[in-house]
Structures are given as structure tokens and as C-alpha cells.
Amino acid sequence: QVQLVESGGGLVQPGGSLRLSCLASVSIFGFNAMGWHRQAPGKQRELVAQAPSRGFPNIADSVKGRFTISRDNAKNTVYLQMNSLKPEDTAVYYCHAANSVSDYWGQGTQVTVSS
Fold first, then answer.
1. Looking at the DSSP assignment, which residues form a beta bridge with residue 105?
2. DSSP state, 43?
3. d(Cα 33, Cα 30) in Å, to the nearest integer?
4. Which of 40, 59, 77, 94 has its CA 20 to 30 A from that of 70?
5. CB neighbours of 26 closer than 8 A, spacing ≥ 6?
6. Per-residue pLDDT at 23
7. How far is it, in rounded angstroms, from Cα 19 to Cα 32?
8. pLDDT tens across 76-115, in order?
9. Rounded to whole angstroms, what are the CA distances from 17 to 48, 69, 84, 113?
10. Cα 40 vs. chain centroid, distance in angstroms?
11. pLDDT tens digits, residue range 35-84?
């Protein structure tokens, strides 16, 4: 069974940085794509960044230039480096992975940007 475990969330001041990690219980080499979504209170879940197994990452316009996604196949981990954080980045961030069989989600990690 595939499990995705996020870590790295927390409270940060505007302009600060956080790095989220998503550790998979299986090799991520077989995932077509891994990425991060987020859901703020009262809003729909939205894609933040996605790293395909091949090709260039897909980054949402709202975070482009501030967030970077990377995947380390050897460590079965995908990262989301978040810089210049804004209050509107406050949300629960979910790790997502997809292969030819199914989609998988982590339990989410809270990111709060506030002074």
C-alpha cells in the first residue's frame, strides 16, 4: 500500500521560507508525477507544483518564482521549497502521486503565514 507522509509545515512570518518534504513508502521512480496541492479554508484544493518523471515542472502562476519543486528518487522524497511566503499561501498542503494504477494523497501539513 502506498503511503505519502508530509513534513515541514508550520508557522512562518511573511517573507519567510519553509521546505516541505513528502516521503513515499515505495519507490517514486514509478510515479508518472508527484506534486503538491493546497487547500485554504473555504476554497477548493488547487495545484501548487508538479514534478513529472520526465520533463519540466509545472508551477502555479500564483507561486511561480517563489516556490520550487524537486524530487529525489534515491530517497523516495519530493520537496517543495517555499520562499517569500505570503499570508495568502496559508493552507493545508497535500502531497500527491500518480501512477498508471491510481492516485495517492498524503494526510496534509498545515502552513500558516502570519505576523
1. 96
2. S
3. 9
4. 40
5. 2, 76
6. 97
7. 22
8. 999 999 999 999 999 999 999 998 889 999 999 999 999 9
9. 16, 14, 6, 10
10. 14
11. 999 999 999 999 999 998 888 899 999 999 999 999 998 999 999 999 99
